[in-house]
Fold these 3 entries.
Entry 1:
Amino acid sequence: MENTQSKHSNDIRLVIVSPCYNEEMQIAESSAKLNGVVDSLIAKGKISSDSIILFVNDGSTDHTWDEIVKAHQSSSRVCGLNMATNVGHQSAIMAGMMTARSLADAVITIDSDLQDDTNAIESMVDKYRDGANVVYGVKKDRKADPWHKRKTASLFYHVQEFLGVKTIKNHADFRLLSRRALDTLASYPERNIFLRGMIPLMGYDAVTVDDTLSPRKTGESKYTLGRQIHLAIDGITSFTTKPLEHIFIWGVAMLGIAFLMFVNVVVAMIIGRAIAGWASIMLSIWFIGAILTMGVGLIGIYIGKMYLEIKQRPMYRISESIGL
């Protein structure tokens, strides 16, 4: 758990990266609250006075960027990155971290809705000062989340565990990374990124802090069911080929069932009890067709990811920045 940090505590420059999408109603409150956290840490001598807060506007369609500009005008500590287009939550976080990499000794990522516990930021800094390169905020409970989100999240973690994807249970994207960890992450060339899987893959000894989830005060979650499903598919297909192995196993099982059905038909013909069964034939056709279609679709997802990786297009493009 050793890192290369050799500065005194009050020389540690912290950058808090906060991705946001259509959060115009939340920015002012988030800025004020994060400023309070930074002020407290500076007063306690745990970070340097030139630590900053970096909001990353992920191509919002409302006035989120205007609110970030206003927040910067109120506090020079608040900075902003404006993506040229919506690149997705994971890429927006990556843009913020890679921008902050040359500016910071440590980076903390936290969503701008601040449902994660900002009080845990101090614990993360303490863990970093003790030598941790990676600190995860792990939710003690998800009572603040809607029922359906709790259930889908639980299913998500179980499926990932079953398929061999290494992640931290009940951890989203609230974490601290040292500059050393950021440098390692920057060496990963993937375009289809899933940070919850990539960061454990780096192999650093990591520690956790408790994260108590709070209800949103304004707006609504941008993680719709569709976005959750997309994230789950990315997480699985980017880190394991086991679904392809399972398709092969299902194919072998279906071949065995087909053989048993063939034996049954032959026996029925021999003893004179063969009955033409339209329903059973159609059911078999539809069942096999569904399995084949799912298999082809899954293989298509993997091929599509290979296609995107081969093109090597930029993960994001920053149209403008403020305060940097």
Note: The chain has a mean pLDDT of 82.
Entry 2:
Amino acid sequence: MTTARALPEVLAHSPVRVMFGSGMVARLGRAARELGASSALVVTDPGIEAAGHALTALDSIRQARVQVEVFNGARENPTTEHVAAGLAVARSRYIDIIIAVGGGSAMDCAKGINLLLTNGGAMADHVGEGKLSKPLLPMIAVPTTAGTGSEAQSFALISDAATHRKMACGDRRLPDEGGLRPRAAILDPDLTRSQPVKVAAASGIDALAHAVETAATTRRNDVSRAMSREAWGLLRPNFAEAVRNPDNDAARADMLLGAHVAGAAIEASMLGAAHACSNPLTARFNVPHGFAVGMMLPHVIRFNCDGGANPYADLCNDGRALADQVEEFLAVGAGPRTLRECGVPAEAIPELAADAAGQWTAQFNPRTVEVDQLCRLYEAAM
């Protein structure tokens, strides 16, 4: 039986149409038809196919009499090679809509395919914001993890396969004006039930980190602050239960919705030093993004609260208590607590710090972070 729930009022500030509730994936085909689709490219990965989620989505699309082609080559932390492989599939036939079914990696890969299919060139040509000259195809995102909130965002994160540099490529225009945000997001908590515990933990910590960092950036505003508070209120009390008891449908539903609101908060605000530090760890040492950002976040919070400041006051009266709580979340998820556990040698810190200093999000941290400060943050996490 398909059920729907009321959405938080803060999502009125997001242009992404959200369909939220158990069984909502059955409406995917109808949503595609409403966007004028006749031929879809579905971007997913083998794990999602094995769980049966891709088949469920395909059934709905086909029942709406939309032709469909599948690209299942999305992988964790997608690279330019994954995008190129998907682009070849998209170019092999007429496509007028792109549908991502999976976690943040599938959604990023789908955005990269969309960008190159419509605007040409290479991903490196589109690093930054607002470089698109041609409209993109409409996109629908169907997240199967409660994590990145990419379905609410206008950026794709794609790694250069040769240099491992993470490239943020985006366009903040409204979806119907050519921007990179999906036109619609289907948030069906039934699809998150099959997450492995480690995936649920890592993706949940990522969502929590989004709520925390967006609450403190230099670009925060009244809208983003309201979204950060809403996301934190959904995620904080449900994280442990959703990880420990995946049969708790209510906890998983609130995590999925909270992750989406946190993603919308990123769109309205930005992220900070914890994400700047996490990207090099993922690119160079294959540390899962959620655990990488989770390890760095307590140290970044304490750094930002030095001298008695508390840029996280919207979420917690005591910033250092907030850092302690993030560490408790890491313990619940049984994730690594130190960089040493992840095989990161101390000798790598200068190179990691230099890379982090060049990350897009570093400039929005509430305290200025340059290479020296970033070195100290990595040292604290060793």
Note: The longest strand covers residues 97-102.
Entry 3:
Amino acid sequence: MKEEKTLYIVVPCYKEQEVLPETSKRLMKKLRDLEASGKISKSSRVMFVNDGSSDDTWPIISRLHAEHPEYFSGVNLSRNRGHQNALLAGLLTAVKKADMIISMDADLQDDINAVDAMVDAYHEGYEVVYGVRSKRETDTFFKRFTAEGFYKVMKALGVDIVFNHADYRLMSKRAVEGLAQFSEVNLFLRGIVPQIGYKSTTVTYERAERFAGESKYPLKKMLAFAADGITSFSVKPIRLVFNAGIIIFVVSLIMLIYSIIRKMTGVTSDGWASLMVSIWMLGGLQLLGLGIVGEYIGKIYNETKRRPRFIIESVLDQDGEA
């Protein structure tokens, strides 16, 4: 008989008081079913990570742990650090006691039933199992177009990323320990996890509508997240600016020769329109180039400070409060 393995489900939470009661109920049932089937051990847990929420998220997590300590754990960050840092905090805390860890969002958009297929894949020898959306029918046209465009741009820039995969995945203990060796402050886990290596596979699922509450990723945050992902894993934007500079320089030489010839043949004109277009185009390209270079310099600045990615205030787990 195969040895039962411990599963921890890590769920980052930021102002999720509306959805947590239902999320906890469904996840507890899922753990019970997996335990009954012998796929996981009875020491398996759901670990909610409170990312500095200002609502009742942490009191709800504390109550869940008090009522069902055999199913629920909690990690409370000292302040809001963002989804990626909260997720990492949960992973690095859970890895101390888990054989495999599944990360998922609290909003119930990720299909909980896909957990079974992920656990089965783990038992088959896979150390990283990516949850991949089979379709995006629940998204608006704008969300679907921009999201799929983001993955395609990342691929075109040479980033190793799984198409239509967010942060719903299973990682073995060894894979999370490998993740812990990546020390960058600017986290983009969708790009980092494939860098770990190890045997991996995918599980497809259909993403549902958010059960309750509001999305924590409005357009502004989505754009910032995309920019972080691109600049954290590719230098191609800088190379594009460099190539654009070469092309403009060559064009300017051609225009210089053309202007000299026109002057020597006596064919001259005021040239106001062409002058204005050139000034605006070159000025815009210069500002764009400075902005891209500045984004990379900002990343370097943040990395060199080596500030902690998160600070844990308290942990509720099998051993009580720490």
Note: The two ends are 35 Å apart (CA to CA).
